[in-house]
Design a protein that fits this description.
The chain has 290 residues and is an alpha+beta fold. Helix content is 26%, strand content 23%. It has six helices and 18 strands. A hairpin with a 5-residue loop joins strand 12 and strand 13. The longest helix is centred in the N-terminal third of the chain and has 19 residues.
Length: 290
């Protein structure tokens, strides 16, 4: 029988707790659920009022991995959902607004991905994101060099940037525009930044997705600012052999990175970091409410 746990007054079914999800370390589903429970205070504000795309990996990263945008079958009626406009027609999506909803979703075994806008204003961006993706043999070390240049460039426009690991190979640079603007406008601005970065660092940066251009360079992906696109939510586990996490980092850590291992964080690393730093991305939350 599937265990039923009460979370803040809601009954949540938690299944297959002994199942290994991240095979490189033997990290189980029970450990995955525990991770989300103890990091929820930091993670939930970054999920609040943003429709979630689930990248599910119920049998681990070596099993079937698939995106789910529509409300999954069997979703409890107490989980908040909302109709979201899409080019192919409106769809109903999940919003993770509280701890019971987070634990229900975590039981699906999923990465959490969210757009750069809030449900009250679809397509009106309140965040800017640049995904720094290294092409082998480049690593996150090279991403850090590019991130530092972009930080200064954004500062010249009066915009403070923050950063987190992708939880995979690269870095995500995040910022909050002074005022909300359309996703198309923020996308155009993000593209300008990527093009300028390539012009300033031609040996290191490419702004086009063309695979043949990317070996040894950092692809500055600005496309995730489009209204239809999503980015890995801060603190989400990633579908990797080890339980790596998309982790906020300090600019001192970025500037001092000389080895990819320095910016590789796993589930067990996050609670101590939260005790030491708090949520390094909390300033991004301030402009969200008008």
């Amino acid at each position: 029988m599937t265990p039923i746990t009460e979370v803040e007054g809601r009954r949540v079914a938690l299944s297959n707790l002994e199942k290994v999800i991240h095979p490189a370390t033997g990290f189980t589903k029970g450990e995955l659920l525990h991770y989300y429970a103890i990091t929820a205070e930091a993670m939930l504000p970054h999920l609040l009022d943003r429709p979630v795309s689930f990248l599910r990996y119920p049998d681990g990263p070596d099993g079937q991995v698939f995106f789910t945008k529509n409300v999954p079958p069997g979703t409890p009626d107490w989980v908040t959902t909302s109709v979201v406009p899409r080019s192919e027609g409106p769809a109903r999506m999940v919003l993770i607004q509280d701890l019971p909803s987070l634990m229900w979703a975590a039981n699906l075994v999923t990465e959490f991905h969210t757009p750069q806008w809030l449900i009250d204003s679809p397509g009106e961006a309140d965040r800017l994101v640049l995904d720094l993706d290294p092409g082998h043999p480049a690593t996150i070390v090279e991403c850090c060099e590019v991130a530092l240049w972009l930080r200064e460039r954004l500062a010249a426009d009066g915009i403070e940037a923050y950063t987190k690991t992708s939880g995979s190979k690269g870095l995500h640079l995040l910022a909050a525009p002074a005022t909300r603007t359309t996703s198309s406008e923020i996308s155009a601005y993000a593209k300008e930044l990527a093009v300028e970065a390539e012009r300033a660092l031609p040996h290191l940066v490419v702004h086009r997705m063309t695979r043949s251009l990317r070996p040894g360079k950092v692809f500055v992906d600005y496309s995730q600012n489009a209204a239809r696109k999503t980015t890995a939510t801060p603190y989400t586990l990633r579908a990797r052999p080890e339980p790596t996490v998309s982790t906020p980092v300090t600019w001192e850590e970025v500037a001092g990175c000389t080895d990819p291992a320095q910016l590789t964080f796993r589930a067990g690393d996050i609670p101590p970091r939260l005790r030491s730093y708090g949520d390094l991305l909390s300033p991004l939350l301030l402009p969200q409410r008008p």
